[in-house]
Amino acid sequence: MDARTPNRTPFHRLPAFPVLLLQACVALLAALILWFFQNPVAGYSGLLGGLVALVPNAYFAYRVYRYSGARSAQAIVREFYSGEAGKIILTAALFVLVWVGVKPLEATAVFAGYLAVLAVGASGLLIVKRFQKH
Description:
The protein has 134 residues and is mostly helical. It is built from 5 helices and no strands.
């Protein structure tokens, strides 16, 4: 008998969604700032860096929140580990795609966008807590 309970909550209602939404906004804002204050190459490079961080985080959130309830505890733990492994592999693959497939590219801008989005993720618990209060 399968004790896993699928989580039927829509993706936009998951606790991680406010963090992902803010990460998307930060990626766009970083790209716009780089575009206007540097050049267009820096702008799209920053956006690509932000997406390299955002897409794997969205994948991880999808995997972790696939199941819910106490009866699904083992499945949730399994999804956490496989989601984290997938996130690392996806991040590496996206970086390779960006480095190999996009020319011209500004490496500093890629890392700036990537780190800006990661910083939002690092403060994710504070963001989720704030959204749950409202």
